[in-house]
Amino acid sequence: MTPGSERFVCIHGHFYQPPRENPWLEAIEPQDSAYPYHDWNDRTTAECYAPNSAARILDDQGRIERIVNNYSSISFNFGPTLLWWLDDFAPDVYRTVIEADKESQRRYGGHGSAIAQPYNHMIMPLANSRDKRTQIIWGIRDFEHRFERRPEGMWLPETAVDLETLDLMAEQGIVFTVLAPHQAWRVRRLGGRSAWQDAGGGIDTRQPYLVRLPTGREITVFFYDGPVAHSVAFEGLLERGELLAERLLGIFSEDSEGLPSQLAHIATDGETYGHHHRHGEMALAYALNQIEAGELARLTNYAHYLERFRPQMQVELVENTSWSCVHGVERWRSDCGCNTSGPSLHQRWRAPLREALDWLRDSIATPFQDVGARYLNDPWGARDNYVAVVLDREAESIEAFFERQASHSLNDEEKTQVLKLMELQRHAMLMYTSCGWFFDEISGIEAMQVLQYAGRTVQLAQELFGDSIEEKFYQRLELAPSNRPEFGNGRRIYERFVVPSRVD
């Protein structure tokens, strides 16, 4: 191929499950809806994560021709809380994910295919600045701990984007992210004074774009091909691998319009390949093999591509947008109409739930700062670094944390107080996990999970600060109406299901 006609293909999989552990037990209790499996992590591993580590490619007679690790050929991110679970409960699958990143480094010029993610899938534009920073730092540190290298890219939960989040990512050394095409506002060529052109949802996805941030920092954005990604996720494109390969190659244009290369790429939930669509991992493996073996295009990942082909265009974004809510980020704070079951259920509980959690987060901030200052040089800086303990709960790791963060030598009682302070903040972030608002009912297992994290936060706050804040929290939850008359509202759900779950 001549340089001007080089064609590259990249498929990104966003592999993620919300944290499901009982906050008091740090263990996942049986989830009946996942039957015959113990829980949804267990079921999704069997249907998706494990099959993608050993995907079968069949010949014309339906016999197994090859078995491949899909992760080594695609771009991917795994949520840190999911990787924690896989490490403990599906270690063989976990090892194949880590090894796939190493293999992709060998394939793609030293650039691994794994990218990072903010720690517990918080909707970043709706977070305060402190939580954004900590989520990014924890996501990076978790990635370094597992993949033994710095991440070059970071996936944004639900691709929800704002400039402050991008700036904090760039500050931490993140080079690129991936967004949906409708999140581009306007574009212009770099290096000149060309006029801005309205993207209008029709941005050319075959090239990367540079975002210049208000602080002077920069970050690169890849906009995935929306129609093909939608067909993969929702229109049965994974029924046959040949169809997937054909649609991916159809992204290319014979008229490269002066581009040094063309990148055909899509992004979907990783669970699309096997969990949402049975045998989807086989279609993925077949398509990638067909493209590569037939020399129809070169497989790549984003970092590898970016090393060779820098952005020629600048883009400005539509802030507070996402890939799964046509109203921006309203799905995680209002009854915007986005749901999973149609108009039969309302989501008027979303706004009161978020407001209750915001109140709880803000109510504990000053006491955390004041009490933490008795023991720590910088309580918020200690929170940023507490991820080292989350990743390694051994005594040596905890003592090293105290040595780095404490303002003086702590006795055992003081150490206990510090650990409670850090766990208070950990649960106050976990309670913002996005799945709590994504679905239709506040009594569902996803919303119940964030309420449990809130319950653990309340309990620790009352132990640490002596204030009885639970009644004030109840009053706010009363404003969150359930669709189920027997449950009434968020307060009754919390009292019925969360309070009995507590362990002192």
Describe the protein's architecture and organization:
The chain contains 18 helices and 12 strands. By secondary structure, it is an alpha/beta fold. Strand 8 and strand 9 form a beta hairpin. Helix 10 packs antiparallel against helix 14, helix 14 runs antiparallel to helix 16 and helix 17 packs across helix 18. The longest helix has 23 residues. The protein is globular.
Short summary of the structure?
With 504 residues, the protein is α/β, with parallel strands linked by helices. The chain contains 18 helices and twelve strands. It starts with 5 loop residues before the first strand and ends in a 6-residue tail after the last helix.
Name the helicity range.
Answer: 40-55%
Distance between the termini: 67 Å
Average pLDDT metric: 95
Largest pleated sheet: 6 strands, mixed
Stretches with pLDDT under 50, minimum 5 residues: none
**Radius of gyration, in angstroms, nearest whole number:** 23 Å
Q: Supply the number of helical segments.
A: 18
Estimated structural class: alpha/beta
Hey, roughly how much beta strand do the residues contain?
5-15%
Q: Give the topology string: H per helix, E per strand.
A: EHEEEHHHHEEEEEHHEHEHEHHHHHHHHH
How many β-strand stretches? 12
Shape: globular
Strand order of the largest sheet: 5-9-8-12-6-7
